[in-house]
Model the fold of this input.
Amino acid sequence: MKIEIWAEITCPWCGLGSHRLDRAVERFEHGDEVEVVHHSFPLSSSFPVDETFSVRDALLRRHGIGGSQAEASTRRIEALAEAEGLTPYQVLDNLVANTDLAHEFLAHASAEGKNREAWDTIFRAYFGQARPVFSMDDLLDLGQEITLDRESTRQALTEHRYQRQVSDDAARAQRLGATGAPFIVIDGRYGIPGAQDSDGLLRRAAHGLGRLPPAPPRHRRRRCGLRPRRLRRSGPQLTSTGHPRSAPDPPLIVSKGRLPHVLPAAHRRLLARRGIRLPSGRPVLP
Done:
């Protein structure tokens, strides 16, 4: 079984979500059959390069969240992390910046066979030690910690050798239905948005191996966890005859409330216009 997780380095829900996924795999009785692969989903490309901001400033600029609201939102994440053994976990008293180069570093490390090691190291450095992970020197130091050759890493980052791969990774997640991070795909069949708890991930993993019936967990979908955000499914467009065009990726079953939805948005709109309803009695709406 292959579990893929898309994440942003500075997203606190991504760090927590990665930790929860690790715990779920450790507890899973068939954990030795699971391969976990991390992918990039950059959310901070709009930040200027070589400039850092406090988390407080970033929340105010990008989300309009400040003062006590920012304090409550971030301290809640820190408390959740502490309750699950992830401590220290520094969110509010940290810095953010453009992470594009850091994602290229992670792609380079993955190409060198260190995907899991590199992601664990960068999350630990950023949230656990409040270290900057944005500049060339920051990343070269991290590379040495996981025994990457410093000069070959410098050359790969200077040439932006993995820039296209990072953008392709994010584009693939969006085609699969991701609107934010973290986003998890189990065995290419089940898309799970948000930082699900370990129990919910265990059930999904067991169902992926045919051990349990499906039971989609209840969750709150978040764009980097700070605001609930409605999940939007991308899917094949309809032809003039009403048949779907071919799509590069298969449709996923995406956990959405209590009912797994597998219909692409275009299909749901067509059914809604014809007055067709789901078995639950709710109208089929996009």
Observations:
- The beta strands are 2-7, 35-40, 52-54, 95-97, 183-186, 190-193, 253-254.
- The chain has two domains: 2-174, 233-286.
- The mean pLDDT is 80.
